[in-house]
Structure formats: C-alpha cells, structure tokens
Amino acid sequence: MLLDFDRLGALRYLLLAIGAAVALFLLLPIVFIVALSFGDSQWLIFPPPGWTLEWYRQLFTDAGWIDSLLTSAKLAAIVTVLSVLIGFLASLALVRGRFRGLNAVQAFFLTPMVLPVVVLAVALYAFFLRIGLNGTMTGFVIGHLIIALPFSIISISNSLSGFDTALEDAALICGASPLEVKLRVTLPAIRLGLFAAAIFSFLASWDEVVVSIFMSSPTLQTLPVRIWATLRQDLTPVVAAASSLLVGLTTVLMLAGAMLRRAR
C-alpha cells in the first residue's frame, strides 16, 4: 500500500513538472516579446543591453499605428455588442426551441470554430469582392462576427441551460410582459454568461489576423494586420511594443474572466 502511495506521489510530481515545462514553453516567447519592447537596441537583442520607452513613444506618436489601434478597438466593440445580442437570441432558440433540425442549426452556428480560418477568409474575400464589401468596416464586422458568434452562443447557452424557467413563469403570473421578463429576470440571471460571451467575442475580434488580412485595404487596417505588414517590411522593436499591447489587453480580459468564474 505504501508503495502504491509512493508511486502516486511520484506520478503527481512528474505530471506537475510536465505541466510546468509546457507552460514555460508557451509563455517564454511572450516574455521575450515584452522584454524586447522595452529594450534600447533596434536589433531585437535578447537580453536587451538596456531599457527604454522609446518604442512605445514611437508607437503612440505614429498616426498609422494609432489609426490601426483605434480601428481594432472600434471593430472589437461593435462585434462584441452584435455577438452578444445575436448570440442571446440564437441561444434562446437553441436551448428552448423544439423544432426539426435543431441539431443541424446548432452545428451550423458552431461551424466557424472547426472550419479552417484561411478557408473562411478566402470564401469571404471572394464573396465580398462581388458585393463591394471588401476593405470596408461593414465587411470587417461581418467577418469578425462570424468568428466571434460561436463563442457567444456557447457561453450564453450554458447559462440558459442552468436557468430555472419557473422564475420567468412566476414573473408572467405577477403581470410582467414577456419583454419585461427577459429584461428584468432572464438577463440578470445569466449576466455571467453574457459577460463571458462579451469577453470572448472581444478577444476573437481583437486578435484576429487571417480574416483581417483578406478584408484590409491600404486605408483600413487592424492592429494585427499592421503588425504583420510591418514585419514583412522591417523588423523593428515598435512591432514588439504593439504586440505587447495585444498580449496585455488579452491577459487583462482573461484574468477578468477567471476572476468572474471564481466569484461565481
């Protein structure tokens, strides 16, 4: 028996060591990028010989970088609102609906998660060229919304599945209209699912690069596309600073989501 416990203990430490090694392997490139964004060498030397904020100054004083940053923020905000709204309506139909083809409809909504992004990007590019939406904010919103919507539907559907509909029935009996029930009973009850849907939708749009490359134009680029284009022309530490901004906002939102789950 003691030998079995010793084996289990050794296996536990082995799994912890493997997990730590994998986490270190995944996080080290991010640490390098952040460190290089503060390095005073323009050749991306690691470890940096010195430290400076020059690259962030250049980032925030360049009109091209600022425009792409604002475009990404505006696009992600629009996609988040639409994704949560459409995701809520679609989740109501998928969770409470009783109709033929329900599973097929659910699979259709989740298809963008399993479909290769480059295939989706090429299809949208060819279609938008025909209807004149390529290189427009509308085209960007539609493309990013297709990617973000499955995350929203999954988060909201999980919250609706655990929601007791008897609360809605009680509100209806007390004289509330169906709209009041949704606004004052259902939405507050599933607010954590809505918040999670908003976080994942924002990140799906904020970090998206493949679809954005096909949708972009010389006058309309998101921050990931700007980073990609700059990397192809010149390897400058300003790219590391811009990448650190992407990573920083993503980390903050993921931590907020983790804290929300812990509070729940």
Description:
Helices cover 80% and strands 0% of the residues. With 264 residues, it is mostly helical. The protein has a single domain (63-263), classed as MetI-like (MetI-like fold, Orthogonal Bundle), CATH 1.10.3720. Helix 2 packs across helix 12. It starts with a helix and ends with a helix. InterPro entries: MetI-like, MetI-like_sf. It is found in: Cell inner membrane; Cell membrane. Belongs to the binding-protein-dependent transport system permease family. It is a multi-pass membrane protein.
Blueprint (SSEs and pairs):
Elements: H1 2-37, H2 54-61, H3 63-96, H4 102-114, H5 117-131, H6 137-161, H7 166-173, H8 178-189, H9 191-206, H10 210-215, H11 223-233, H12 237-263
Helix pairs in contact: 1-12, 2-12, 3-6, 3-9, 3-11, 4-6, 6-9, 7-8, 9-12, 11-12
Can you give me a brief rundown of this structure?
The chain has helices at 2-37, 54-61, 63-96, 102-114, 117-131, 137-161, 166-173, 178-189, 191-206, 210-215, 223-233, 237-263. With 264 residues, the chain is mainly α. The chain contains twelve helices and no strands.
User: Regions with pLDDT < 50 over 5+ consecutive residues?
Assistant: none
Shape: globular
CATH superfamily: MetI-like
CATH architecture: Orthogonal Bundle
Most strands sheet: none
